[in-house]
Fold this sequence. Notes:
Layout: E1 2-7, H1 13-24, E2 28-33, E3 45-53, E4 56-57, H2 59-68, E5 73-80, H3 87-99, E6 104-112, H4 117-134
Parallel strand pairs: 1-2, 1-3, 3-5, 5-6
Antiparallel strand pairs: 3-4
This protein binds flavin mononucleotide.
Amino acid sequence: MKVVVVYMSQTGNTKKVAEAVFQEIQAKKDIKELKDVDSLKGYDFAFIGFPIHYGGPAKPAKNFLEKQVQGKKIALFVTHATREDSKALQKWLAKCKKAATGADLAGFFNCQGKLDTERLERARGFAKEVIRKIRP
Ligand SMILES: Cc1cc2nc3c(=O)[nH]c(=O)nc-3n(C[C@H](O)[C@H](O)[C@H](O)COP(=O)(O)O)c2cc1C
């Protein structure tokens, strides 16, 4: 099984989550920036991470999800500035999932971009759970 972590990160928050996720993967693995990825060809599974911009997935991530993940096994991770219990957030996260319509979504994680140990631990837990789920 070959797994890729694809992420987009302007200020480094999502990158830190991506690196924590990557560390938890016990399989053949790559980590790549979204701008360097044209397709998920050659990978059995992809973790895809990006920030919320203007109440939805950041544009490059939205475009990628809409065009490249149909029929693919993926998990998403998202960072945002707003609190995890904010009401508006649920709508924004729903937009992220909607952009990935047609994918086989094995997991979905979000956290505030201002990272602390607890959030990174939760990200690691998310990665472990997804890996357990997808392991043949
Ligand atoms: C252009 C722009 C728009 C943003 N819009 C939102 C938003 O609507 N809601 C929110 O909670 N955070 C918003 N943020 C904050 C980012 O989602 C947050 O800081 C995130 O962790 C940044 O990730 P990065 O460091 O990987 O780029 C926005 C940030 C930028 C730069």
